[in-house]
Sequence to fold (397 residues):
Amino acid sequence: MEQIQTKRIVLGITGGIAAYKSAELTRLLVNQGIQIQVAMTEAACHFITPTTMQALSGKQVFINQWGEHTANHMAHINLSRATDAIIIAPATADFIAKLVHGLADDLLSTLCLARNCPMLVAPAMNRQMWENPATQRNIQQLVADGVTILGPANGTQACGEEGMGRMLEPSELARAVLTFFQPKLLSGVKVLLTAGPTYEAIDAVRGITNRSSGKMGYAIAQAALELGAEVTLISGPTALPCPHGAALMNITSAAEMFELVQKHVTDTDIFISVAAVADYRVAQPSEQKIKKSTGGLTLELLPNPDILGYVSGLPKPPFCVGFAAESHNLYEYAATKRKTKKIPLLAANLVQQAIGADDNELVLFDDAGEHVLPRANKLKLARALLQHIVKLYRRGN
Ligand code: CTP
Fold:
């Protein structure tokens, strides 16, 4: 993560209501160790104050080309040279048009024109403005000029209308920025992931499931995307948003998960089995709600297919990574599990520490022995795990 922590970004804010979200975006990026230099248009100052942005970024905010901040009045050159990327969020339709035509009539547009670094643009506007052929032409031109366009999203707009044009949420933009800066170690590599719990129906309203939140699996999907992988995520029921760029397929039962894994695994380079798959399903789930009676109730359970076992047993298996959640004897059980499953890498954790939590600690088991990934939030841990996977995967290919 060294590369990310030393990055510097100019955050350009233009005059749209989504400017209030730039405050949160700044906070998220600063928390990731990124240095943020804010440059705002005059119009942006009607929506959010430079004081707010200065407090969050810890740096003087630039607005005016003729301001007193720089002795040589060359803020546009100085700022664009001292940055690794420029992100414009929100980018209004007007500012996008300016970028397309190379107009430079204020500090922000001038420094964009003078840049020698990559630029990311997060459009934010009314849906009619977004759909206008002029805006669509402009966006196509920016893409052709090598600018990365982030969003926009669909949804309710500040004006009350519904449709495309909302700026992406700050968390999505922050993730996109982090992804942008990662070395693309898994470019062209297809990663298939299972995540979350499965749900095995007992009747129309009841079922057997477990407490997996899916957080670890989704964090691993995010970390793989950051490295440029093509990610297919087969997920049981969770409350989590799909990591931007992943192909998400929702399933309920282990049987549905197995079916989708069989379908996609033939075109997979790395299979990461994070899902907490139910080991058993109900032999005969009732289509109707079972009414209570005075006596007890016995359910017959049948074993579910071992999905990871199936994949690792294929004649030409992808690089397989398994997970083990243990409540005790972690080292012993995990090492045995890796051998039984015949997989090159297994990540083990203690259920008491992991389930539902935002952070975790992993012990990795591979041919070389054990490696402890110390307690960290699940995204950090996922990135460290991916680095280990890349090392082993590259060695074998
Ligand atoms: N797994 C799977 N299909 C199953 C069960 C588990 O693919 N039907 C995968 C999990 O995603 C995980 C690993 O296998 O990667 C866990 O191994 P397993 O031996 O099934 O673990 P537990 O179910 O925890 O086994 P036990 O209950 O015996 O500890």
